[in-house]
Write a structure and sequence with these properties.
By secondary structure, the protein is α+β, with helices and mostly antiparallel strands. 30% of the residues lie in helices and 23% in strands. It is built from 4 helices and 5 strands, in the order αβααββββα. Strands 1, 2, 3, 4 and 5 form a 5-stranded antiparallel beta sheet that branches. The N and C termini lie far apart (114 Å). The relative contact order is 0.10. The model has no long low-confidence stretch (mean pLDDT 79).
Length: 172
Amino acid sequence: MREKDRARSPEENVMALISGFSAKRMAIALACTAMLTTAACTKSRSYTGYVTDADLVNSIQTGTDNRDSVRQVLGSPTFATQFSGEEWYYLGRNNRNFAFQKPTPVDQTVLKIQFDAAGNVAAITRSGLEEVADISPSARKTPTLGSNRGFFQDLFGNIGTVGAGAPPSQQQ
């Protein structure tokens, strides 16, 4: 009798099924892990803020448009100056980030519209990525005025001083 024609025992059938099943399961698990790993490391882009339409911005003319007409054409500003209200800013930024890193700006558009005292457009200024400042906070402690006390001095420094600061009229 040939080997193929010989009937397998039930144990051999179960072992063949388990070994084939685990190999397939392992291959699927590895493929899923590889897809998730590569998907987590892809670059992503995001756009935040005002989306500038060149035709709408070019339609605003200095001296002829006022606050109301600018609001009708461009919408509400991203932010305005706090005290005088003489400047409106429309800010839009295109960011890029890789995996879980901090987003970095790729492109930025700042549209600054200045108004005169009557509320008419006085000037329109555009700027870009050159206005972005890179701020690196210091990890060191901020110096404070007063004594330089350590942890244990702060913890045990008041032992024995309870009642020492009371006025003489209240001491017995």
